[in-house]
UniProtKB/TrEMBL annotation:
Coiled coil: none
PANTHER family, A to Z: AUTOLYSIN PH-RELATED (PTHR30404:SF8), N-ACETYLMURAMOYL-L-ALANINE AMIDASE (PTHR30404)
Protein name: MurNAc-LAA domain-containing protein
GO biological process: peptidoglycan catabolic process
Record CDD domains: MurNAc-LAA
Length: 344
């Protein structure tokens, strides 16, 4: 049987788009990947994964002269790259991106179908069965030249709470749809009756840096929340989180103190500290000019001379901690990330 490659976007220091308490790099590798791996293992086809640690970025590797340049159609029957999109909080839906020189095959349409069932199709992709056509993405173009079957999935908008809630609530169905879309198979489902009193939608499943209690509760010694420690933790208290651990099917926040607390949405919420920066806060749609003193993109690649002094619209915004910047902007037309310190 054929071998298919699945690539999770970003990594190697780039978290990708950020929203709703997570980012592309970590969500796809840490949350979605275990479900995809489970269904990939049920397939008669072989699946490989480019990186599940977050230490590699296929885009950067290709830009540096390896990555896809080291792959062939003989080695991989297909490459599917998985991302989430970002824009304003009202933008919604997903799509499958293919090279505009091609027509969508059954795999592309199958993958677009699972996106439509979970979050719906994005914008103009609604009129093309969830398919978008591009010719300005590096991996897309290199695969075309090398004759490799490639597509990029935008599962939905990471900046849209409804999109992310739907994806999180349907992780297994999403993963199954991705594997079936790639292979054309119909995989066997093992049905496990849900616990009567448990609904994962009532719990946070994303690690936050900090949380705030929205009602009184206790911290506990064990992840099972068996032994209360200390006095009641009052509503409004802010706590530092170091991870999420599970007790059976129940997610718990592990605190910096080593104690545990519930992740129930009716008890705790994410606490975001204001980001202090000396630069203006810009948003998607704003027009900026790249400073003539800029030397490189946010990824570290040398900036082309024609970019400096030119005006571009902001397509996406993400939080970073790099040089003197706390934010980076994805600029239209050049599709590159630029630090806030390098625009005006």
């Amino acid at each position: 049987m054929a071998t298919h490659l699945i690539v999770y976007g970003h990594g190697a220091g780039d978290p990708g788009a950020v929203g709703n308490g997570t980012n592309e790099r970590d969500f796809n590798r840490k949350v979605l990947h275990p479900h995809i791996k489970k269904w990939a293992d049920k397939s008669k086809h072989t699946f490989a994964f480019y990186d599940i640690t977050g230490n590699k970025d296929l885009y950067k590797d290709t830009a540096n002269g390896w990555g896809i340049y080291g792959m062939t159609a003989k080695r991989y029957a297909s490459i599917t790259e998985i991302h989430e999109d970002a824009a304003s909080s009202s933008a919604t839906g997903g799509h499958v991106i293919i090279n505009k020189a091609f027509k969508p095959d059954s795999n592309d349409l199958g993958l677009a179908g699972i996106i439509n069932r979970i979050v719906g199709w994005w914008g103009s992709a609604k009129s093309s069965k969830g398919i978008s056509y591009r010719d300005n993405l590096l991996n897309l173009n290199v695969c075309k030249i090398r004759g490799i079957n490639y597509r990029l999935m935008e599962l939905g908008f990471i900046t849209n709470k409804s999109d992310m809630d739907k994806i999180k609530a349907n992780l297994d169905a999403c993963a199954r749809g991705i594997i079936e879309g790639i292979t054309g198979e119909t995989l066997t489902v093992t049905v496990t009756p849900p616990a009567n009193s448990f609904n994962i939608k009532n719990y946070h499943t994303t690690k936050f840096a900090m949380i705030k209690l929205i009602k009184d509760d206790y911290a506990y010694k064990e992840v099972s929340l068996k032994t209360k420690v200390g006095a009641i933790v009052k509503k409004g208290t802010v706590l530092t989180v170091v991870g999420i651990e599970y007790s059976g099917q129940y997610p718990r926040f592990k605190l910096k103190s080593g104690l545990y607390i519930t992740t129930r949405k009716d008890t705790v919420e994410e606490y975001k500290q204001p980001v202090a920066t000396g630069y203006p806060l810009r948003k998607v749609g704003d027009t900026v000019t790249v400073k003539k003193t800029a030397t490189s993109y946010q990824t570290g690649q040398k900036m082309a001379s024609f970019v400096k002094g030119s005006k571009y619209k902001i397509k996406q915004v993400k939080n970073v901690s790099q040089s003197n910047s706390k934010r980076a902007y994805l600029l239209d037309n050049i599709d590159s990330w630029v630090l806030e310190q390098d625009v005006q």
